[in-house]
Design a protein that fits this description.
The protein is an alpha+beta fold. It is built from six helices and eleven strands.
């Protein structure tokens, strides 16, 4: 059976479908077990009315965050996430996780300090709040690109290992480049100006590095920079128009 995404399950009421993802939660109420499977597109509840359906989990000693494939009958369920669930499931364990996850992902808030989240980012980033931040970043970059492409801009990719500082006013990270000094680029500014002579309107979405000590979590030494450069600017209103259309 072909796997579908959890976001597509609602289109198959009364049919048997297969989903695959991570075992997000497992709870028992009376003689019924409720599982939640999470993939990259959402979650779906799975209802097992007998212990035999859970035999694959027990035999593999599969705990939370194990990778599973579940085939089941799609049925309406008002109290289930999204109003649907998978009944009469057949479960396959693809990859078993036996250790208890270092972070609790089933709670509304991720109750862990920043250091813990970074140390266990492979797990922390699965929490809905972290996923939302990452998706917001992706949508922001997509919107930035779309707005500028619609205005005739060309996307470029500039070097990030450079022979000298590209912008004054910020410190650089120095590195050894096969016995020679090199630096991580602080900004694509120089290359944007060069490419204006080629395409007239250019932009870049890429990393920038600033070797600046700081005492705040709002200051990053590495960040994604959204840069644009254009030629034949009549006055500041020309720039303001592009900015307004891009940010709006």
């Amino acid at each position: 059976m072909e796997r579908i995404q959890t976001s597509e399950v609602g289109d198959h009421i009364g049919e048997r479908v297969q989903v695959a993802g991570w075992l997000a939660s497992l709870r028992r109420l009376g003689g019924i077990s409720f599982l939640v499977v999470r993939d990259g597109f959402g979650i779906v509840q799975v209802v097992a009315e007998d212990e035999e359906a859970l035999a694959p989990l027990r035999s593999a000693d599969a705990g939370l965050e194990s990778v599973v494939a579940v085939e089941g009958l799609v049925a309406p369920a008002i109290q289930a996430p999204g109003g649907i669930e998978l009944a009469k499931p057949r479960i396959e364990v693809i990859s078993s996780v036996r250790e208890t996850p270092p972070l609790v992902l089933s709670k509304r808030q991720l109750k862990a300090n920043l250091t813990t989240q970074l140390d266990h980012a492979v797990i922390a980033n699965r929490h809905p709040s972290r996923r939302a931040i990452l998706r917001l970043g992706a949508v922001t970059m997509e919107a930035f690109r779309s707005a500028l492409l619609a205005k005739g801009f060309t996307e470029i990719q500039s070097p990030k290992i450079v022979a000298a500082a590209t912008e004054s006013g910020s410190n650089v990270f120095q590195l050894d480049y096969f016995g020679r000094s090199a630096y991580l680029a602080q900004s694509p500014q120089l290359y944007k100006q060069m490419m204006v002579g080629v395409f007239e309107r250019v932009f870049e979405v890429g990393p920038a590095f600033r070797a600046e000590p700081h005492d705040t979590t709002r200051h990053l030494n590495e960040f994604v920079s959204l840069d644009a450069e254009m030629g034949f600017v009549k006055d500041h209103f020309t720039v303001m128009e592009v900015l307004q259309d891009t940010l709006a």
